[in-house]
Amino acid sequence: ASCVQHRLVVRDASSLQLLQLYTCLDQIQYIEWSSDSLFILCALYKRGIVQVWSLEQPAWHCRIDEGSAGLVASCWSPDGRHILNTTEFHLRITVWSLCTKSVSYIKYPKACQQGVVFTKDGRYMAVAERRDCKDFISIFVCSNWQLLRHFDTETQDLSGIEWAPNGCVLAAWDTCLEYKVLLYSLDGRLLSSFRAYEWPLGVKSIAWSPSSQFLAIGSFDEKVRILNHVTWKKITELDHPATIASKKTIVYKEVEKSPAVDPERLSFPPTRELASSLFSTKSKYDISQVPVSLQYVKPVADRANPKVGVGMLAFSADNCFLATKNDNIPNAVWIWDIRKLKLSVVLEQLCTIQSFQWDPCQPRLAVCTGTSRVYLWSPAGCVVVQVPGEGDFQIMSLSWHSSGDSLVLLSKDNFCVCYLEGEEV
Asked: Can you cite an annotated GO cellular component (predicted)?
């Protein structure tokens, strides 16, 4: 699904054939599929309205108007039959049922980095709250929206919460001014508290491994710390130095070259094909000899949100690899072997890393850098894929299909789908 101004366009994922076209009341700011892909939500934040469309019954539609309360966020519940709307100033979360048309309210949600999270099985929801200048967490049962647990947290300014994939442990982390990660059980008991250091800027990002065995914490000191699920103690620290010295680390460096043109083919005015080949550059990977010095950017100390520390990290689907990005070294992706707890590969790009994401089915990483190329890495090696087409298609983000067979590449105004052919049996 994609939106163009006030129109919602639904296409077949395999052929991109147009299936449905819906018209909303105003410009669409956000869209989201229900978990069963039968409904799609369109949020019109400027109007405080959510419109819902059905794929099975195109004539059916639903409109939810928050009125004067306004709207700043909207999302589906895991069952795909309830919509959670967050009103302006985070006064409340309204839960709307598509089946019974009933309405439930959750008061005092906290405006933070990640304040509403669901367990992977869809049974429970955790909400970060702020009451009387103190942080709380409420856990709800998603089947009837009844409050299961409500407890305060030992945080100064709760920044975010995240369930472990098995739904047994909830991680909560404090503001970047206070390094603190808290781990709570489903019944609200504090299992452990982790603090790496005291005074400098603290936690910047966290990620659970798919098996729930590891919690990776990216920090402003350019390190990733990994906690284990038995004692919740640190098992290793992963550094991101500007110089790669280990001979056991493979450094793939992106290099760019202009294609050679046969002088006999030159003509004036040049043909369209010749012009595109003259001004296009091709890219490939070379393996660099260690030691390798990576491009290091010194952060500006007197500005807010400094470009420093580990801001992106993600585990592969098989738990074997961890990909990270250190914002001080914006052109590199670090790939760690979790089985050995060692740095395995560094991808050094020509441009700043915009996004990366693991294939949901196998250890294969897709990377984009704001250019018209997508980069794919797997343990077998890495490759540069040029997006065909006219004009400058700058890939700013990407998303894998759940099957791992295709990849959506998004620019500011356009998108394209990259289909990956499997090996012939």
From this structure: MWP complex
Retrieve residue 116's tokens.
């509403």
Dump pLDDT digits (tens) for 368-399: 999 999 999 999 999 999 998 777 889 999 99
Per the rule left: phi > 0, alpha: psi between -120 and 50, beta: everything else, 56 is alpha
CA–CA dist 10, 274 (Å, integer): 37
Who's near 402: CB < 8 A, 6+ residues apart? 360
Which H helix or E strand runs over 279?
Answer: helix 272-279
| Confidence tier at 17 by pLDDT (50, 70, 90) | very high
Cis peptide before 269 (omega within 30 of 0): yes
What residues does 389 pair with on adjacent strands? none
pLDDT for the residue numbered 45? 96
288 pLDDT higher than 60:
yes
Percent of the chain, pLDDT > 70?
94
Give the domains, in start order, of the chain with CATH numbers.
1-107 (2.120.10.30), 253-260+267-424 (2.130.10.10)
Give the model's pLDDT for residue 423.
56
Is residue 51 a contact partner of residue 39, using CB atoms and an 8 Å limit? no
For residues 368 and 319, what is the distance between their CA atoms, to the nearest angstrom? 22
Strands of the sheet containing 203-208, edge to edge, are 203-208, 214-219, 223-228, 234-239
| Sheet strands (E) in 174-317 | 181-185, 190-194, 203-208, 214-219, 223-228, 234-239, 243-244, 250-257, 282-288, 292-293, 310-315
Contact (Cβ atoms closer than 8 angstroms) between residue 137 and residue 161: yes
Question: Would you say residue 255 has pLDDT above 60?
Answer: yes
Q: Is the pTM of this model over 0.85?
A: yes
Q: Mind giving me the DSSP string for 17-56?
A: -EEEEEE-SS---EEEE-TTSSEEEEEETTTTEEEEEESS
The per-residue pLDDT for 259 is: 65
CB 103 within 8 A of CB 87: no
Element (H, E) at 376: strand 373-378
Query: What's the Cα-to-Cα distance from 82 to each of 99, 165, 356, rounded to whole Å?
Result: 8, 22, 31
pLDDT tens column, 298-313? 888 777 777 899 999 9
**Whole-angstrom Cα distance, residue 344 to residue 249?**
5
